[in-house]
Design brief:
about 450 residues; alpha/beta; seven-stranded mixed β-sheet; 15 helices; flat
């Protein structure tokens, strides 16, 4: 069946230097051939070889030139969609880009749906579903980790891992089914013990992937970080230093910050979604009290707590309240104002925590301790480095749920073996695990799910 030829503006719609209009489908070359002439005013695009680029003009239906362009030709199957693709590189003015798009559609193309180029790459077998989703993740990357993790996905790191696990499961399914069909020639004697060992190994692999999902989500979407402390300890000054701008009001008056301030920064290759809170203390001021309550609520949801202490003044009951609140939180403690006469030491603060918290001496006025803070964050969440080549991080909630379902199915296989259930029970749960993992790479998905996934893509991708 003849597929329709699609076209879309693949660059942002702004007045810029250049823009790209992408056309894909069986009629891509004939369509652009009809609206493109070379410098000799000849229509000869259909005679050009694949993966070549050509100078000329786009003309309207009357033959009037509308723009000077470069046109790239990529013939099937050696293209992004595995179909014929033509890309028109034109000037980037909004009007002219829309004009050329209208000419292309008038010549026989239709406007592409969001993500339809990548959807065709998936449907035509060039990439699996996990790699297709990685394309969108690359576009939306907020930091170096997210970018490199998405690139690993695009190269097929998750696909090959899932494919290998599914092949191991499929082997066991085939063996059980063959033995049940032909018990005279294929024996299941001692097989449950072997399958139990294999299931344990597969559970370990799936559990490792599940365990990576938490860190993967944090590092992809950003670490929810909250700055807490008593009033006037330097929280707002710290936020201003991190973002490089005077976003938070800084005064010598305690309680200046009464509501939460939110900023997103990139720090050492990862993203921190930072919330600066009102100083936590007992107060009769109604407005300040509301700010304190909001600070406590944000604190409960934080992935990382930055607890600031004024090292020039003794700790008091307000500090003890905060120490109690963050007892179970991943936290970094900053002993600020260390350029003044210090009366709070690292040893003293360390006695109030059961675990070994990282304590850093800082001075916001002198900008001291910031390098140590950056290194500490990287050590806490990246173990000092990102292992792009060796580790697969699960950053997609859909993938996580599929792996979780497969993991639970494999646990059920083990349980059935331990309870001496018949072999066909093993096969049912093995098939369930196999199917769950198949949804990640697109081998067990319906049309509705495929459409939903690609509807989230940007136009022209």
């Amino acid at each position: 069946m003849k597929t329709s030829t699609i076209a879309a503006i693949s660059t942002a719609m702004t007045n810029s230097g250049i823009a790209i209009i992408r056309i894909s489908g069986e009629e891509a070359i004939p369509i652009v051939h009809s609206v493109f002439v070379n410098k000799k005013n000849q229509k000869c695009l259909d005679s050009y070889r694949s993966h070549t680029i050509h100078y000329g003009y786009i003309v309207d239906e009357k033959g009037v030139s509308v723009d000077e362009v470069m046109v790239s030709v990529m013939k099937a199957p050696h293209s992004y969609t595995m179909e014929d693709i033509v890309e028109i590189n034109c000037h980037g003015g909004v009007y002219i880009v829309q004009k050329i798009m209208e000419i292309v559609i008038h010549a026989g193309a239709r406007a592409a749906e969001p993500g339809e180029f990548t959807k065709r790459a998936f449907l035509n077998g060039r990439i699996d579903l996990s790699r297709a989703e990685a394309v969108m993740d690359i576009i939306s990357s907020k930091n170096e980790f997210a970018l490199q993790s998405s690139m690993q996905m695009l190269k097929g790191s998750l696909f090959h891992l899932i494919k290998n696990i599914r092949e191991e499961i499929l082997y066991e399914i085939a063996f059980i089914e063959s033995a049940l069909d032909d018990p005279e020639h294929i024996s299941l004697e001692n097989y449950p013990e072997k399958l139990h060992e294999k299931s344990s190994s597969l559970c370990e692999k799936l559990k490792k992937l599940l365990d990576s999902a938490h860190d993967g989500k944090l590092l992809k979407e950003g670490i929810q970080t909250v700055i807490v402390g008593k009033p006037n300890v330097g929280k707002s000054s710290f936020l201003n230093l991190l973002i490089g701008d005077e976003k938070a009001i800084v005064t010598d008056i305690a309680g200046t910050t009464r509501d939460i301030l939110e900023e997103t920064i990139s720090l050492g290759g990862i993203t921190l979604n930072i919330t600066d809170t009102a100083g936590i203390r007992n107060t009769d001021d109604i407005v300040e009290k509301i700010g304190v309550e909001r600070a406590k609520k944000v604190l409960e949801e934080a992935d990382l707590v930055i607890y600031m202490i004024d090292a020039s003044t003794p700790i008091d009951e307000n500090d003890f309240d905060i120490i109690h609140m963050i007892a179970d939180k991943k936290a970094i403690i900053l002993l600020n104002k260390s350029d003044l006469d210090v009366c709070v030491t690292e040893e003293e603060i360390g006695t109030y925590f059961s675990d070994n918290r990282k304590i850093i001496r800082t001075s916001m006025t002198q900008e001291e301790g910031m390098d140590c803070f950056t290194k500490t964050v990287k050590d806490m969440f990246l173990e000092g480095k990102i292992s792009y080549n060796d580790e697969v991080y699960i950053t997609n909630i859909r993938h996580k749920e599929a792996i979780k379902d497969a993991y639970e199915s494999m646990l059920q296989v083990k349980k059935s073996i331990e309870n001496s259930m018949p072999e066909d029970f093993y096969s049912i749960d093995l098939m369930s695990a196999y199917a769950s993992l198949g949804t990640i790479i697109g081998e067990e998905v319906g049309e509705d799910l495929v459409n939903e996934i690609f509807s989230k893509f940007c136009m022209g991708k």
